Amino acid sequence: MATLPVRGLLQTLNNIQNRLLPCSAAPLVIPKRTRHKVNIQHPWPGHINRQVLVKVTAPIIKEPYVDPAEKCTRRESLVSYMDQLTEYEKFLIRHQKKLHAENADGIIAVMHLSSCLAKILHRSKIALQRSGFELYPLNRKVVHHAVADTKYEVLRSLVGFSMAMVLCPKPRVKDMMAALEKIPHLHLMCAVVEGQLLSKTQVETYASYPDRLSMIAQTSSILNVASQTCKLLTAHQEQLVRNLEVYSQPDS
Fold first, then answer.
1. CA 138 to CA 167: how far, in whole Å?
2. CA-CA distance, 156 to 150, in Å (whole number)?
3. Any bridge partners for residue 138, and if so which?
4. What share of the chain in percent tops pLDDT 90?
């Protein structure tokens, strides 16, 4: 078979294309000059014939049928958002439990955090640190698992969004209330003082009492006064007994 020259081969291919495709059909390759980068995220849809071809040949995937009567039970069987924990959230839960154990004999105050700038919140944190307190933001999911099966489980219903926690290893309730008066975007909701869960009113009442050392000193002074009073009341009786002993002796 004799070989055709290149010009004859190209002419033959053009004739075949003209015979197979009608004159009104678009060419197979449309050259287009662009002076900018091609948009990959939102590419040019192409010719209308190509769009129709892609639309017709796209596979049809049917969604699995779910009986409407089983939707409620199926929703309950799915894993909830509160039970899906990442490794970082597990670490935060362990850290939260450690903070609760370290401040069990002190103060664990739950605060509502109002909307404020980040720099203002940082200044409040520094001010509390200078007073001997620590401020930690609270995560609802972390607290939900940290206080589970403990005596502080009631905190799960209190902790929501935009919450914070103030910690102190010592029960310095009066100093905490004085420091919170200067921070208007922190609102006390409840607190755990020396292992006892107290409401806001109870915390304010607790802060009005003097500290433990002052109360011990007052109690000891009251007991000393009582002991002196008892001695004064029994002094005459003792003197009478001694006088009767003297008179009852035969040599007297």
1. 12
2. 11
3. 163
4. 0
Say which amino acid occupies 24: S
Helices (H), 103-196: 118-130, 140-146, 173-180
Question: Do 159 and 140 contact (CB within 8 A), yes or no?
Answer: yes
- Beta pairing partners, 190: 110, 199
Q: From 181, 178, 179, select the one nearest 135 (Cα to Cα).
A: 179
**CA–CA gap between residue 152 and residue 104 (Å, rounded):** 11
Q: Residue 36: pLDDT above 80?
A: no
Position 245, amino acid: E
Its pTM surpasses 0.90: no
Q: What is the pLDDT of residue 144?
A: 85
Helices (H) and strands (E) in the chain, counts: 9, 5
- CA-closest candidate to residue 188, choices 172, 206, 164: 164
For residues 166 and 176, the answer to whether their CB atoms sit within 8 Å is: yes
Domains belonging to the chain, first-starting first, are: 85-208 (3.30.70.1730)
